[in-house]
Amino acid sequence: MKKPKAVSAKQKKNETAKSYAGFDNQTDIQGYLKYTLYFILLALPIYLAYNYYSNALFVNGANSFPLDDGWIHLTFAKNLNEYFSFSYYKDQMVTAGSTSPLYTFIVAAGFFFTRNEMLLSYFLGAAFFAAAALILFKLCMLDFRKDLLASLVCAGIFILDRNMNFISLSGMETTMYVFILLLGAYLYRKNRTYSLALILGLVIWSRPDGIAFIAAVIIDLAFGTLVLKNEKLRKAYDRRTLLIMTGIFAVIAGLYFLMNFVISGTPFPNTYSAKVAYFAEIEKKISYFSDKVFPFFSNMSYGIIAAGFIIAFLKFIYDTVKLKTSENSLYIIFTVLFLMLYMVKLPEVNRFGRYVMPLIPFFILVSVAGFRDFLILLNKFISNQFVVRLVFILLAGLIFYQSINSYETFRSYYAEQCRYIYDRQVKTAMWLKDNTGDNDILGVHDIGAIGFYTGRKIIDVAGLVSPYLNKRLLEKDYSRIMTQYLKEQGVTYVAFLREWYRVVNQKPLFKTPDNSSQEVMEVFRFIPDTTYIISKDANYIMNTALRNLSKKDGNDIVNKMDSLLVIEPIYAEAYYLRSYGYSLLNNSEKYEEDLRNSVKYYPGFLAAQKNLGLYLKENGRSAEAEQYLRKALELDPSDQEVINSLKNTEEKK
After folding, report:
1. Which of 197, 415, 440, 514 could be cross-linked to 59 through a Cys-Cys bond (beta carbons 3.0 to 4.6 Å apart)?
2. Sign of the alpha-carbon dihedral angle for 338, 339, 342, 345
């Protein structure tokens, strides 16, 4: 009989410390208790997401998403379901415009069961959120050696996470993507080789940035087998197995790249290159971590969680240098590669930080692991299991308390953002549906709700589903290129958030509320050779000037408009705004001159016609004032001030 290996005093002390800390107390959950726990883990995310939904519906009186992008998936899926074509308009606009083809296919299949697009999207988002919570719990039980309390804490923080609840009802693929990533991590930790290869193939179908996770698995596996010489890994991933895995992955991933290439001539979707083009400036890459990533992962409840992540990260560095196995290596490598990929290619977290949301479950898992490791170390100095475990419970309680507060705050925020999108994108879509014909073609830069609800052909000036414009986005005279392309494509209406693209010297047919500093959607009839869209630089100056208008700084207004008019010399509103600057500086001569220029380039400019008429009347030039006041009254027959001024002018004749 083989003699047992002797255990050193140091090893006994370390094992005792772990035992006292209570983190090696393995809990096997069996039978009824196991399935009850699984049911709770699945039901809680659905209930919490439903709470967001019901509150938003109660407050707003209508269903919506907090992002316009959710309807992009729905449009592709609807056309795929009805025409069996990966198209954005019936079967006539085939394009690789979906960031997540896998999610689009799932939604398309869902349309066989229901035509209610909102119900379908809400159900899928919440269901994948619930599935992700269950897989995260199982992964924690594996990583934490069946430590039930730590695993429940990790899953609980994830379930309460404000961003996961928020994004689960956004119509986006994020919770599906998170589920697939977690499932991939679980299969990797369980050494389920062929299933892992299948999931890694689906990762790339879920989102292009999934390349970072695939690379992380390869790096971690190579380090474990070649450097650490882990016999368990070597046995599971022998040469034959790796070859078969490579074949499975190559077929699935190859189909993804082939589909994109056949449709659009590139291996990645149009959305990828369009978004990369928008964020290509080197300054954004340099400040990506400090200005984008750090604020996202340090605010509200994440601030405490980040401390655990830092502890785990430092331990990972130590273990790597010492050539020791680290349970967090896959998650940390993935996080680093994912953020580096975005820094280089797309230095943005986007609205609500949704680009980095796939990192949240790994951020939480690694953080809980970091706190566990810290308390195990602490127990070497405080040999009292109760005290150390109590510290862990109190720490978890504090995180839960902040998570609940964040959840409640974001419940109201979700309703606000749904209303924001509904008032702009959805109402605009409904107006266009009711006021345009089937043969009208729309030029749009937010294509989601408008594309889905109007059913009209869309020319996407943001380039997501219009490859020609996609390639021209960074050109300095893009507004001219875009206008010419709209003309060539027979566009009849344009709908732009004016903060992005501004049509000037033309009255909008429809406009969303203009009573705040938030974005305003405007719809114009597109008139070839007449409709004028100012340049990106000019629009930036105008947006900046409008934001600073409340300061009533005449010199600043005049200087900004001087710069703008050098670029766009026929822009009536710029002359009008400069006239306001001159009024603040008491320069009446320049004030009048700019008002005249304003009505010269845009006779339909009500405010300019009215102000010029009133100014002339107040300065004793009633006869001259009359023509401008009459034009103002023609533009707005209900303006009582203009009516009274005209009456007063006529009485003096």
Report:
1. 415
2. negative
- Please give the pLDDT value at position 470: 80
In whole angstroms, give the CA distance from residue 445 to residue 519.
13
Which amino acid does the sequence have at 498? R
How far is residue 136's CA from residue 134's CA, in Å, rounded to a whole number? 5
526: CB partners within 8 A, 6+ apart: 443, 486, 487, 491, 492, 493, 494
Mean pLDDT by 10 residues, the chain (653 residues): 47 45 63 90 97 97 96 95 92 86 96 96 98 97 91 96 96 97 97 97 95 97 94 94 97 94 82 60 76 87 91 94 92 97 88 94 96 86 78 90 93 96 96 96 95 95 85 87 96 95 95 78 95 94 91 95 96 96 95 96 94 91 89 91 81 61
Cα dist. 211→241, 322, 339, 537 in Å?
21, 28, 12, 35
Place of tokens 């400019």: 605
| End-to-end Cα spacing for the chain | 125
- 378 burial via Cβ count (<10 Å: 0-12, 13-18, 19+): middle
pLDDT computed for residue 49 by the predictor: 97
User: What type of residue is 616?
Assistant: L
Residues 6+ apart with CB under 8 A from 529: 487
User: 385 phi and psi, to 5 degrees?
Assistant: -60, -40
DSSP structure class, residue 94: B
Provide the edge-to-edge strand list for the sheet that holds 493-497.
Answer: 457-460, 441-444, 493-497, 521-525, 510-511
The secondary element (H helix, E strand) that includes residue 330 is helix 329-345
Strand pairing category for 493-497 and 457-460: unpaired
Spatial separation of the C-alpha atoms in residues 38 and 125, rounded to whole Å = 19
Is the Cβ–Cβ distance between 479 and 535 less than 8 Å?
Answer: yes
* Structure-block tokens of residue 45: 């995310």
Q: Classify residue 328 as exposed, middle or buried by CB count within 10 Å of its CB (0-12, 13-18, 19+).
A: buried
Q: Would you say 88 and 465 are in contact if contact means Cβ atoms under 8 Å apart?
A: yes
Do 77 and 107 contact (CB within 8 A), yes or no? yes
Whole-number pLDDT of residue 17: 43
**Burial zone of 219 (CB within 10 Å; 0-12 exposed, 13-18 middle, 19+ buried):** middle
**Residue 283 has which token pair?**
């300054």
Phi, psi for residue 392 in degrees, rounded to 5:
-65, -45
Cα–Cα distance for residue pair 335/219, rounded to 1 Å: 13
Closest CA to 66 of 412, 340, 562, 584: 412
pLDDT at position 282: 58
